[in-house]
Amino acid sequence: MTQRRTLLAATAALGLTPGLARAQQRFASMYMFIPAGPGGGWDGLGRAVEQVARGAGLVGSFQFENVGGAGGTVGLPRFVAQRRGRGDALMVGGAVMVGAVLTNRTPVGIKDVTPIARMTTEPGVIVVPANSEFQNLRGFLDALKANPGAVSVGGGSAGGIDHITLGLMLKAQGRNAREGSYVAFAGGGPAQAAILGAQVKAGISGVSEFSEQIAAGRMRALATTGDTRSLTGVPTLKESGLDIVIGNWRGLFGAPGINAAQRQALVDFTTALHALPAWRDLMKTRGWDDAFLTGTAFEEFLARDQRETEAVLRDIGLVT
């Protein structure tokens, strides 16, 4: 790895010209590990980092690897084992992985990688195929209440934000989360294909993952999970009478065993990236909310999020 630390985050905020940025690039190359299949939210964040970082000259080239399954817990051990001590490697992860580690009781978790930065958060959206029998959220909720097992819902891996959202909705209808028919997929891409192919009756994922299909009329959005509306004409769960507000944060993690200087270089890189106007523009285009955190603040957030996620999973019966 070639690191060039002469570029400060402050200069990135000033908007360097492409030529100058390339002359002061931070990394000649970077390995980006996505513990999910192509086309989902984690893959989208990784590709967005590549797009903006290469455009600004912060990184010369990227190498991507996608290993999906079980909320990131299939790929995570591979990253931990193969990239130990490598300061030019990043892994995308987030809220889904926190829940999946707890649900699957995996020995390798976020504790085994190096926190670098929380980057974004976004609300979820509950969707059905365009020709679905469910015309609105009330019809969907009534069906869940009457017979949860008959309403298959596709989403990300078991124990993740999508699964938790369904569990909370079932609980709000007086049912147990374990009664639901949740179909876990290795990422937003496979889940999207299953919804469009009517393999499941509904789906839950981040707004950005389904927005194109919603806009094209191939999916119908029933509700979003944020505190305020994310899609025109689509109500939130909260305003629909369900006391549920939940978001899906995503971030970047370094390999285990990196030293303090290597970690700081990655933190400096994400800080410079976050300061770029191109990054702010991209977040707005994707519908992502800024959730940038680094250092001790990010570590404290992770500890709190793991405690709160475990409490919710216990409350809705997804872990014992």
Could you provide a short overview of the structure?
The chain is an alpha/beta fold. Helix content is 41%, strand content 22%.
Task: Summarize the SSE layout with pairings.
Layout: H1 9-13, H2 18-23, E1 27-34, H3 41-56, E2 59-66, H4 76-82, E3 89-94, H5 95-104, E4 114-129, H6 137-146, E5 152-155, H7 161-172, E6 181-184, H8 188-196, E7 202-206, H9 207-215, E8 219-224, E9 247-254, H10 260-275, H11 277-286, E10 289-294, H12 295-315
Parallel strand pairs: 1-2, 1-3, 5-6, 5-7
Antiparallel strand pairs: 3-9, 4-7, 4-8, 4-9, 4-10
Helix pairs in contact: 5-12
Tell me about this structure.
It holds the Pfam family TctC. β1, α3 and β2 form a beta-alpha-beta unit. α5 packs across α12. It is built from twelve helices and ten strands. By secondary structure, it is an alpha/beta fold. The chain is globular. The N terminus is likely disordered. Helices cover 41% and strands 22% of the residues. Strands 1, 2, 3, 4, 5, 6, 7, 8, 9 and 10 form a ten-stranded mixed β-sheet that branches. The protein folds into two domains: 180 residues, Bordetella uptake gene, domain 1 (D-Maltodextrin-Binding Protein, domain 2), CATH 3.40.190; 103 residues, D-Maltodextrin-Binding Protein, domain 2 (3-Layer(aba) Sandwich), CATH 3.40.190.10.
